[in-house]
Structure formats: C-alpha cells, structure tokens
Design a protein that fits this description.
alpha+beta, Acyl-CoA dehydrogenase, binds flavin-adenine dinucleotide, four-stranded mixed sheet
Amino acid sequence: MNLELSEEQTAVRQLARDFSDREIAPHAVAWDRAESVDRAIVKKLGALGFLGLTIPEEYGGCGGDHLAYCLVTEELGRGDSAVRGIVSVSLGLVAKTLAHWGTEEQKRQWLPGLTSGELVGCFGLTEPGTGSDAGSLTTRAVRDGDAYVVNGSKMFITNGTWADVVLLFARSTDAPGHKGVSAFLVPTDTPGLTRREIHGKLGLRGQATAELVLEDVRVPASAMLAPEGKGFSVAMSALAKGRMSVAAGCVGIAQAALDAAVEYATEREQFGKTIAHHQLVQELLTDIAVDVDAARLLTWRVADLIDRGQPFVTEASKAKLFASEAAVRAANNALQVFGGYGYIDEYPAGKLLRDARVMTLYEGTSQIQKLVIGRALTGVSAF
Ligand code: FAD
C-alpha cells in the first residue's frame, strides 16, 4: 500500500487531532471519574462529520475512505477511549452496517440522524449466556401478523442507555445455530424494552454500558435488516470492520501512552539526571514506540484492503489481536515510566491501561481472534 496520506486524509486527521486535544483530552479524567462523558460531545462529533465517515452523502454522511475513518478513530482514542467507543459503535457497528444491508426506507429513516449525532445507535448481540459463541443466542422473535414479538435480554451493550435505536439480533426461525438468527432495527422507546446501566467497569467508565431486557417487544416486520436468517452474517460483517476500528482506537491509546511517557521521562529527574538518561527507561519507551508503529501499520493495511475491495477479515483479526495486546503493553510500560505517579489518576497512564484492557475482550476476545486466524491458516475451525 501507499503509506503516504492524501491531502484530504492529512486534513481530516488534523481536524480530529485538534478536536481531540481541545474538546476531549482535557475532560477525560473528569468524565472517567463521573462515569459519563458530556453527551454534548456527540453532536459536536456529528457536526464535524466524524459520525458520517464512509457513509454516502445522500444519507447525511460525508463519504471518505476507511483509512480516514481509522485516522479519526485513532485521534479520538488518543483523547479518550470512552468517546472513541461511542463513535465505533454508533457509526462503525450500526450506521455502516445499516448503510450496507439496509433497504432504502431504513437508510432514509435512520442514517441522517445517526450521522448528525441527533441519534445514537447501539449493537445488541451479546447476551448474559452467550458471548464468544454469539451464534447460539437465545433472544426470540416470533412472527405475529405483520410484526415480530421479541423476548430476551442483551448484556454489555455499549451506548445502551443513550441509544435511540438498537441493531438487535434475535432467533426468528427454528433453523439450527446461527442460521436462525435475524437482525432488527428497534427504536429503544418501543414498549417492553427496558435498559439498566452497568456500573463499576474497570475502564471506559465514561461510556454507557447497559443490559437490555425485552418483554413482548413488538417490532414491525419492515424493521428486519437483511433477509430472515441472515442476521449472523450481518453481525459478523459488522464486527469484521469493527475490529479495524477497535484496532485504530488501540493505536490511539498506545500513542497517548508514548507521548505521555516521553514527556515525563524528559522532565522527571532521579540520580541527578532526567530518567530519560537511564537506559532501562529508554527500553520502556522503545518498546512502546515499536508497538505503536506495528499496530498502526497492521490497522492501516486493513483499511487499505477494505478501500480496495479486497478480502480483509483475517487481517482485521490480526490487527485487532496485535493492537489490543500492544495497547495494554504500551499503557503498562508507560505506567512504569511514571513510577508511583502512574498509579494515580492525575497522571494518564493508569486510565490508559484500564481503557486498553477491554480491547482484548470485546468484538471477539484475543482467543477468538487467534481462532479466526488459525482457521484461515489451517482450514480447520477450532472454535
Ligand atoms: P466468554 O465468551 O464467556 O469467554 C470467557 C473466556 O473464555 C474468554 O477468555 C474467552 O476468550 C474464552 N473462550 C470462549 N470460547 C473459547 C474458545 N472456543 N476457545 C478458546 N477460548 C474461548 N457486546 C455487544 O453485543 N455489543 C456491545 O456494544 C458490547 N459492548 C461491550 C462493552 C464492554 C465494556 C464489554 C466488557 C463487553 C461488551 N460487549 C458487547 C460484549 C463482548 O463482546 C463480550 O464480552 C465478548 O465477546 C466475550 O464474551 P463473554 O464476556 O461472554 O466471555
């Protein structure tokens, strides 16, 4: 791939960088402590076009390619992963999936609101009893006239209590395994749908993570996204691109760790000189820097493959696997550079580490990414 950014890509990255430095990073600690980012940030993201990247202009999007999307995601993740996650889900998992699979009517109904930030989307796949094995989900949608009646529950849903619409996965036929799963676009104010925020998360505390309970929720048949029984394909296609977005967010975390650690190492003095003079501190910084570059290059490769219409699923798993583990390592190394100050939240490393940790868990754990890569290498599905 051509590693030189176009003028447009450079400009959008600068826009996101300035926005992140001005509107996100200065508030990240306070939002983390308050367990909520300021909701006004969503409309500001929409106004700048960051919620419409890769979405066609006719639906309120601003076009652009996946590399630009990665650049913006990295900058948002550098400022605060909680904000990055709101975008990765509302745009990355919901709007982009809707733009790909939706009918004209569904796109016109939801995309302008999602891309402007007037509306927020969430992605309802995981259930209390089914996480990695998402194809075994048990939420049930039973046909009743021109509608489906849905019963079940969803767990760990990012944006859950904020969202206006949930891209919901439910079993609608008796076909075995994932073949019976369909996708639905369900307004969150539909009677019978209740939401409970999950508190006490290790990281991403500024983000609203929720449990959704569905009791006799009536969803019109016209709200089904993609043909009946194709829901799992919808979910997997969303997650494949989603993994690139998570990887880009991880690059942002690792970059933030590097910036903070270098700055601190060149100011803090021990043994009569700044700690940057100590070789073992330089080793910590070097390890972070190599992780940042390697994670970024793997992530950009996925974007490039998508933009050129090439297969990218295995590469997305590689990027997500490496970048998430690298972000944890980088934040942990940065914490070491900060010494005892790294352990309190007035300094950035601890939050970066807490925020990074979930990246190895969601949108497929590191083990699941290894099984995806292993299947591509051997032809054997070892799930
Ligand atoms: P399990 O699947 O029970 O896994 C437990 C352990 O077993 C893990 O280590 C796993 O790697 C391992 N394991 C499982 N199967 C295998 C196997 N075959 N081989 C080897 N090891 C295996 N979900 C959504 O649908 N929407 C969201 O917006 C969303 N946001 C989230 C936000 C947060 C903060 C968190 C924590 C989770 C979120 N999730 C969301 C859910 C997330 O995707 C799941 O937690 C994740 O897929 C893992 O599922 P699980 O927690 O049930 O773990």
